[in-house]
Amino acid sequence: MRHDHPEYHLITRIGWLRAAVLGANDGIISTASLVMGVASAASSSHDALIAGVAGLAAGAMAMAAGEYVSVSSQADTEYADLAREARELDTDSVHEREELALIYVARGLEPGLAHEVARQLMAKDALGAHARDELGISETTTARAVQAALASAATFSIGAAAPLVLLVISPTALLLPVVAIGSLIFLGLLGMVGAKAGGASVIKPMIRVTFWGALAMAMTTGIGAVFGKVL
């Protein structure tokens, strides 16, 4: 009796998960740090809110642009490698088949079987076989610039909104501790969600994001306090 056993691997999420976690993490840390730095300079909560909203807008656009440019550069490199591989297949397919067979031998196949596998795979999709096994390019990991840009901008905005909400609801006298503690809680939750989505352990990601978030907020708060007294 045959039983279907469909498999779903978490690596399929890598294209958007990295950009989403990075965007939300940057949104929380940069906005919380910004409003705390402004507030610690003896400015009003209104000034801190304006700075935070401006930081949200600027940060979301910067994240989108940065992701689009960087992932587009990766995609350009992939396309160039694929074009070069296609030319090599057209001009010397025998050598390319031998090259593919040697890759399979290095992975543990017997030479005769490796050559047969290479022959059959190239008969079906020569460029696809070389892209996957020689260049390491697959449908799962291929660069998607627009997807990464939109995911980064959206998640940055969501992350940046969290400290702004804390700023609005906190009493003026407790603004700094409420924003700091609340933002660290959000960062910890983000680390947990990102780890769960990627199928990893949650402890290390939570520690990483909260540590760097606390360091960034402490530095900007200190700088704001110093310059608030000097200027």
Architecture overview:
The protein has about 230 residues and is mostly helical. About 5% of the residues have low confidence. The N and C termini lie far apart (about 80 Å). Helix 2 packs across helix 4 and helix 6 packs antiparallel against helix 7. It has 7 helices and no strands. It has one domain.
Short description:
By secondary structure, the chain is mainly α. The protein has helices at residues 14-40, 45-91, 93-106, 111-133, 145-169, 175-198, 203-230. It is 81% helix and 0% strand.
Globular, elongated, flat, extended or rod-shaped: what is the shape?
Answer: elongated
Measured between the Cα atoms of the first and last residue, the distance is: 80 Å
Total of domains: 1
The fraction of residues in strands falls at under 5%
User: What share of residues is helical?
Assistant: over 70%
Order of helices and strands: HHHHHHH
Main β sheet profile: none
Structure annotation, total helices:
7
Q: Give the class from helix and strand content and strand pairing.
A: mainly alpha
How many DSSP E strands? 0
Overall pLDDT: 83
Low-pLDDT segments: 7-13
Radius of gyration: 25 Å
Features:
231 residues, mainly alpha, 7 helices, 0% strand
Topology:
Elements: H1 14-40, H2 45-91, H3 93-106, H4 111-133, H5 145-169, H6 175-198, H7 203-230
Helix pairs in contact: 1-2, 1-5, 1-6, 1-7, 2-3, 2-4, 2-5, 3-4, 5-6, 6-7
